[in-house]
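Worked Example 4.2. Consider the chain below.
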Amino acid sequence: MATSFVLKGDIAFNKDANTIQTFPNGYLVCVDGICKGAFQALPEEFCNLPCYDYSGKLIVPGMTDLHVHAPQYTFRGIGMDLELLDWLTQYTFPEEAHYADLQYAKKAYRYFSDDLKRTFTTRAVVFATIHNESTIELMDQLEKTGVVTYVGRVNMDRNGDENLQEDSAGASLKGTMEWLKEINGRYQRTFPILTPRFIPSCSDELMRGLGEMAQEQGLRIQSHLSENRSEIAWVKELVPEADCYANAYEILGAMGEEERPSVFAHCVYSDEREMEILKKHHAFIAHCSDSNMNLSSGIAPVRKFLEQGISVGIGTDVAAGSSMNMVKEILNAIQASKMYYRLVDDTVKALTFEEAFYMATAGGGAYFGKVGTFLDGYEFDALVLDDSNMASMRAMSVRERVERMCYNDADLFILKKYVQGNLTFSRTE
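Applying the procedure from the previous section yields the following structure tokens:
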């Protein structure tokens, strides 16, 4: 049950995509899990609430990981010399096949869930595997972390591993319905999301069936889009009537709509036509810069997405991304955009720090509603951070310290983590 309280410290959050507002030695108010705003002086109406003093510490919004693969966590940082399709074949599919064994899944997902609880992430959109029991085990564990998540039981009826492929579109759809029935009403913070891995893994029949299921059940969809040139060429062979990768999803009825927006990870090679489709369907893009660099996929044109008014957040994409550290991903997103500007198109300016921080907090948080900032009326997701190990000879503003923490995250510690006003993690010295 969420409580009401005040946090005192050095507060920073995005007022909008271009502005980080700060309150040095300010006050942040939570009432029944909802933020009532940040203040330089505490309003009288909140003076009777318990006040936790973190003077000298940073207080920032919780972060949203829009794209992460829970079963891949155990082999993060391995196989990074490969490109996407070979990496899937040699590492991902054989590993995910192990999740047919529930005992294996229990142990592996414990590693993932325990780490997620200790990260900067307060919201996440998560891939599981094709296995119902293991997916439910993951959801059970995530519910206990206090992190709010969407979790997907993966669908794939073609082009998989001999031990990681469903028998048919009908079997995949039936298994998904059984999973949905089993979890109905089971969780408060953990929600289902339909999860076709990507077009190459799903027959037209399966993808159409999932699109119909999403519409009938009021469910959202997550998948991958335009990550790798070989993948894109493959999609063109599989759905030749489509004029681009996103159009293949659109033709098959799996793009989503405003009331139930889809999340598409990567979009490295999304052109104007693809952006038009993404915007039309109110889709969110999960920008996964670490993963895209690790697998030599390329650099997504994030500035173009923002200019088109497309919703963009950040995804760690473990295990192609090497960790679930969202602060590191902010830095990666900025650096990747600088390389796009310098090496790809010098008319497309790099991300500012304000924009990248927004993407990690309010930008991705918007997928969950009013989440990711300390404006009045938003859900209270907050991180209390200790940056005191970052020695300096100069006095720094709160804004400068927030930027610095993303470039020196090894010396940054999470002291407290709140989700919906609930304390979900506390660092012990």
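The chain is about 35% helix and 25% strand. The radius of gyration is 21 Å. Compare this with Example 4.1 before moving on.
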